[in-house]
Amino acid sequence: MSQDDGLLAQHLIHQSQSHADRHFWHRLRWRWISNRIKGLLNSGSVLDLGAGAGVAGLFMKSEKNYKYYFAEPITVLRKKLSDDYGSDRDLTDAKKYQGIQVVIMLDVLEHIEDHQGFLSSLREKMDMGANLLILVPARQELWSAWDQKLGHFRRYTTSMLEDVGRQSGFQVIDARYLFPQFFLLGLIRKKFFAPKEGNADLPILPPLLNQLVFCLGAMVSFFWRRPPLGSSAFLHLKKS
């Protein structure tokens, strides 16, 4: 992961200064990941790898059965995370992730050029039997100036994710697309709405509309478990 304090860092710092945990996108993303974690663990330790602004940590404050750890290479964000959660929760420089049952990577892998090499190294740090849950932007048809601004190297298909997971030595448990309701919106954004210079932040919706979009998204995820495409893709890997 790059140490560059460029637009990506500004974007993440802006998240850390706003109520990101109220935004429909972060809430939908966490709702999905939280359900997966609870399906694996009744209690235990979770590592947020590439934690950014610590949005996952904000949500996990209400998850009393879980202990939150983070790893973040951008210095200014790492310091804020240490201030918020304690330096004892910082595993950025850890050689091994001992006792961590679940590692999450939320919109991180697309920022890493050698994603297979990164996952192979990550596997060596994880305990045997530990799980890795990954969310990434999906479908190259949605590639746009937003991806370029945020330093993405690629968007993924589920088959790409499965391949890189297996080639990195993991067992693939699950791979699927998420949030099909945002696919068409992604195409519209790509064609008509370029990011403003120096800004790639998520749009802030009026509270009522924000809640409506969240509720609709939650319903879609509940009733349409395996859509044929989506704006994001999910991968569950296991070290076995």
Order of helices and strands: HHEHEHEHEHHEHHE
Q: What is the rounded distance between the termini?
A: 25 Å
The 3D shape can be described as globular
How are the strands ordered across the major sheet?
2-1-3-4-6-5
Strand proportion, as a percent range, falls in 15-25%
Q: Supply the number of helical segments.
A: 9
Task: Give average pLDDT, whole number.
Answer: 90
Helix proportion range: 40-55%
Question: Which residues form runs of ≥5 with pLDDT under 50?
Answer: 1-5
- Category by helix and strand content: alpha/beta
**Rg of Cα set:** 17 Å
Largest sheet: 6 strands, mixed
| Total beta-strand segments | 6
Report on the architecture of this protein:
With 240 residues, the chain is of the alpha/beta class. It is built from nine helices and six strands, in the order ααβαβαβαβααβααβ. The protein has a six-stranded mixed beta sheet, sandwiched between helices. α5 links the parallel β3 (102-106) and β4. The radius of gyration is 17 Å and the shape is globular. The two termini are 25 Å apart.
Features:
16% strand; 6 strands; six-stranded mixed sheet; disordered N terminus; alpha/beta
Secondary structure topology:
Layout: H1 7-17, H2 24-40, E1 44-49, H3 55-60, E2 66-71, H4 75-85, E3 102-106, H5 115-125, E4 131-137, H6 145-149, H7 158-167, E5 171-178, H8 183-192, H9 207-223, E6 232-238
Parallel strand pairs: 1-2, 1-3, 3-4
Antiparallel strand pairs: 4-6, 5-6
Concise description?
By secondary structure, this protein is α/β, with parallel strands linked by helices.
